[in-house]
Amino acid sequence: MSQLTEIRWHARAGQGAVTAAKLVADTALMQGAYIQAMPEYGPERNGAPLKAYTRVCSEPIEVHNTITNPAIVIVLDETLLDTVDVTEGLLPGGTVILNSEMSLACARERLGVANDVTVAVVDASKIALETIGRNVPNTPIVGALSKVTGLVPVDAVKQRLTIMFGKKFSQEMIDANLASVDRAYKEVELA
Amino acid sequence: MKLITPNIEDFNSWTVDQMPTGFVMPGGLSEHYITGGWRSMRPVWNAEACTNCMLCWISCPDSSIIVQDGKMVGIDYDHCKGCGVCVHECRFGCLELIREDQADAAKEA
Amino acid sequence: MSTEIKAFSATGNQMVAEAMRQAEPDVMAAYPITPQTTIVESFAKFVADGRVHTEYVTVESEHSALSACVGASAAGARVATATASQGLALMWEELHITAGMRLPIVMANANRALAAPINIHCDHSDIMGARDTGWIIMFAETAQEAYDNTVVSFKVAEDARVQLPVLTTLDGFTTSHAMERCEMEDDDTVRAFVGDYVAAHPLLDTDNPVGCGSYALGDCYMKTHLACRRANTGALSVIEEYGKAWEAICGRPFNVVDTWGTEDADYVVVVLGSAAGNARHIARELCAQGRRVGVVRPKVFRPFPAAAVAAACKTAKAVAVMDRSDSIGAAHGPLGAEVISALHEAGLTMPVKNYIFGLGGQDLTNELMTSIFDTLEDVAAGTASPALSYLGFEE
After folding, report:
1. The total number of structural domains that make up chain C
2. Domain range holding B46?
3. Residue B105, pLDDT score
């Protein structure tokens, strides 16, 4: 039987959710998986809530639709919790990773998820500000995803990130992004 | 590559397979298509008054002003439709438009 | 292991742009429109970077884009372009001219809805507007297939037995913009496969002058159309021939009609493009539960592979045809009418339920897809109407 993992990303336009969705897919592909990564299509408006999707599978992926029952939900902006039902359709025993400075207990309460759901919190914005110098929580949160789910090894994420950013950014910027991945990998808390 | 077609005069009887792909036809076919019979008025040229300014040649929509070695030598009545543009353009009054039936009558007389 | 080394991630549009670069057109005249833009944008970059030696003509509209392509193709050039939606609609008169003049232009279309209301998302309303023009029309399911189809398109279009333009289409956003695992062959392999294009009677051959696009009346006009019809119908075997030749090179299957589970299926779904993946995804689940269901996906819509589609439906007690565009005022959508006609010709009389789905990017959820297979059982039992319905909006 094929092993299909579906991730839904919640973010605001400009936070790099689509880049993160593609980074995870690309990393998984390097490990031999079949992948899909796509934004929820529409006009890009900075700050508007958006969704993005990543599928990772051991077999070719045939389905072409949005992800309504994700195993993993990643929230890049905690203010979305006020307006978006981020856990809608989350599979039993699923995982939610939240970029926030709130405590695990507080996060679990805000999300209102069942006991079998894994909740993880990482202050990816703080990590991004301290390493990259801008509030771009997308790369650190992939480090947290690696730690929490084991879907992709953190070293592979960093290897892929280096290739992906290699053409566009300075070595200093790449190093800062790699450092943000490492820190989020270490600092993410889960229960 | 030269485009080979069956006898061009009989193009209406070509089979579907004989039709050139995309109806690409040999060049210059309009020469065989005699449109002079459409004329009700005929331009008549006065060779002696002509200055060979070529205004009629450049204006004729049917390329019916015959020119050899830079000089006008006549009108191609096989293709001239008698529109009269050449007569209108001539600055020297050496082209005149007459009725086709009177031209025929003049010829017969 | 070798496939893992070859595999990389790309969107459908990137893959089409790569295939076009590898085929090295002499001329591309194009105008950008969502969701096709990244094809011509990528191609323009290939030209700017010197990675392909194509005369890239920027024009002021799609009408001009295809007009310029027509001129270049009549002059003897290999020509490619791309468009979508309103852009394809604006090309309408040139679509007929291109096919009528038998110019082997390859054009990608990122299938998208037509206004009004304005909508940038996927459906097949745009491409179905081109179905009666004489163009060959192919539908890709995936980004990978968009690449393979585009490579094969050049070969088919330029073959002396065909000499027709080809629309190589992919579903807007769903396939054009989603990143998927892909493979591509190296430039030399594609160039060797596609070969050089030598036009039989180019306008620029001044030693052998020809007239293109001339006036034709009565019999000549009818005969020219009949020749076009024969070339289009006959292209099916040429597509198959080159598709199989490409399959032998790249190792990826190329079938004019893709079938899954149809050998003994009780219920069959016929659908074009990316949605076929959704149908198979659900069909696999249902088969695992012991139900006998199948999926038929014509890769080629023009010429329509009627016999193969009918053959794939022959064991079915009921057939569902999923149309991603409507033919308003007709009893069936474009694919529905085609399939019913094919079944009739084959003497098959099972009930056929025609669904209109996914207009303007409406998501084809797994629940909706499952409901089609469920309803088919009721249609076969006579407890549900086979009349056309809009999926998710049944009353």
Report:
1. 2
2. 35-108
3. 65
